[in-house]
Amino acid sequence: MSNLLVLPILIPLATAVILIFLKEKIRLQRVISALSGLLNILIAVLLVTRVHSEGILTLQMGGWAPPYGIVFVGDMFAVLLVTMASIVSFAILCYSFSSIGEQRERFYYYTFFQFLLVGVYGSFLTGDIFNLFVFFEVMLISSYALISLGGTKLQLRETSKYLLINIVSSTLFVAAVAYLYAAVGTLNMAHLSQRIAEAGQGGVLNVIAVLFLIVFSLKAGLFLFFWLPGSYSAPPAAVRALFGALLTKVGLYAIIRTFTLLFVNDPGFTHDWIAWMAAATMILGSLGAVAYRDVPRILNYNVIISVGFVAFGLAAGTADSMNGAVFYLLHDMLAKGLMFILGGMIISAAGTDRLGSMGGMIRKYPLLGWMFFILALALVGIPPLSGFAGKIMILRGALSEGMLTLSLIGLGSSFLVLFSLMKVFRLAFWGNEPKEEQPKVSLKAASAVAAGLLLLVIAMGIGAEVVYTYVSQAGEVLASPALYIEAIMKE
Amino acid sequence: MELVMAVAVGILFMIGVYLILSKSLLRIVLGTSLLTHGVHLLLLTMAGLKRGAAPVLGKADTYVDPLPQALILTSIVISFGVTAFFFVLAYRSYQTRGTDEMDSIKEDNE
């Protein structure tokens, strides 16, 4: 039992409620949001150190012992993701101070921001599958508000689509939970894992597994990503960064959790599905990233490619590739947050999001240009940067399983990631400046945030050994569900 | 009884999907709300329909399972919020665009 586990959810929740009452006091709203963000980072780091020394932490809500009550579980995987999410969301919060605009700030932007975080942290920490649904909904309804805040025609159109897709997938989620409850009669994830193993994962449970896969894939953008590039283009850069860095990752977390803990007994069926979905995601995502010529869409397709890559690590299923998937997921939250922030800075500096009408920005904004360049190298996985360690572990695991085709697709998609980002770099920063002179925009505040995140990207690459000691502890639990079950059902 | 419920769920799903596939945004919203009703009935049916006393309060021979009802209650509250949001969104986009036809949406690219 550890009450510390509930704090990552309680702090943003309390902050959000307080912020509702401070509608007109924008400065105060900023200060309070920033303080709560910092506090959350502190608590998350504390959780990581405690899980590192004591093993999996659990918290039984209302003292109801599992499997009856709702239980919160902090295993290393969950708390690492909470830590990374709190760091990235703090950076995005600081970026929104200078970019989101007073109109949105006045209309509860920071409140929705905090509610979104409640949903994200809750999804990571809960150990109950219906509670996961509830936190998903908390996260989604805040994201509907954030995506439509501002109310331009484009936003209204994209929100309608995004909302409809998510309502349908949430309906399927409840249906899947209903079937699962009918089949095995419990909702606690550890207990589910036990019961599914006892019942043997036959036809019915495989159908339920696929239903869950469809639901989470819709949220994560794994293969079923048709809605993502459009919807993520509509809101302003800071919101885009938040979605790109956190929302799809929550879906991925749910896929990894269900397919390493619950549906593990028939990998020949389920994990093959995931593998081919991952391959299709990487191929189609790469095509999109190469084909488009406006910045938001190129970046959105890059999000999709990395979703495919992490799912590929899960599908390979060796200890090595699981560690790689965890490492890459952490790297990707950081790097995608930074990518969208830099993308937003490029758009506000150029005054357009079309690559065709940009050019020559390296003269006015050298720092921005080189930061983007280094980030591109990190996303591809050039050695001293953070993308490298995750990629090599995933590929090594996959090759040892003999998944040659998928590994080649993974490597090919990395190459196309490089190609698409270099296209942005070349067209935006090199060449001649466009004829109409753009006024120089001050990007000092945003640059400071981006530089901070970039330092973290570099540090995570150089200090990969240190990060690995934590990541391997997370991978250990993912590889053997017995550890997870034992921690929760011990009483 | 289970069979009747299953057919009812099927019909609700069918109508819901039909409405979602229509052009008018208002019909789509109604479709999503029917779809969630269907899934709530499904939850109730899947947990097993039986008569019995309420658990915890008093003694009886058979008890009903309280969990699906708690789940449905939670899910109803959530779908209530989401549907309310969807209605406001539909109304706002009707105001901005002057129509609630999904077809005409494609054209307005800012």
UniProtKB/TrEMBL annotation, chain A:
Keywords: Antiport, Cell membrane, Membrane, Transmembrane, Transmembrane helix, Transport. It is a multi-pass membrane protein. It holds the Pfam family Proton_antipo_M. It is found in: Cell membrane; Membrane. InterPro entries: CPA3_Na-H_Antiporter_D, NADH_UbQ_OxRdtase, ND/Mrp_TM. The keyword Ribosomal protein does not apply. The chain crosses the membrane at residues 6-22, 31-48, 68-95, 107-124, 130-150, 162-184, 204-229, 241-261, 273-292, 299-319, 325-347, 367-386, 406-425, 446-471. Residues 128-416 form the NADH:quinone oxidoreductase/Mrp antiporter transmembrane domain. The keyword Transmembrane applies. Its main location: membrane. NCBIfam families: PRK07691.1, PRK12663.1. Belongs to the CPA3 antiporters (TC 2.A.63) subunit D family. This is Multicomponent Na+:H+ antiporter subunit D. It comes from Paenibacillus silagei.
UniProtKB/TrEMBL annotation, chain B:
Pfam families: Oxidored_q2. It comes from the Bacteria. Gene3D superfamilies: 1.10.287.3510. The keyword Membrane applies. Keywords: Cell membrane, Membrane, Transmembrane, Transmembrane helix. The chain crosses the membrane at residues 6-21, 28-49, 69-91. It is a multi-pass membrane protein. It is found in: Cell membrane. PANTHER family: ANTIPORTER SUBUNIT MNHC2-RELATED. Belongs to the CPA3 antiporters (TC 2.A.63) subunit C family. NCBIfam families: PRK08600.1 (NF006372), PRK09094.1 (NF006573), PRK12660.1 (NF009303). This is Multicomponent Na+:H+ antiporter subunit C.
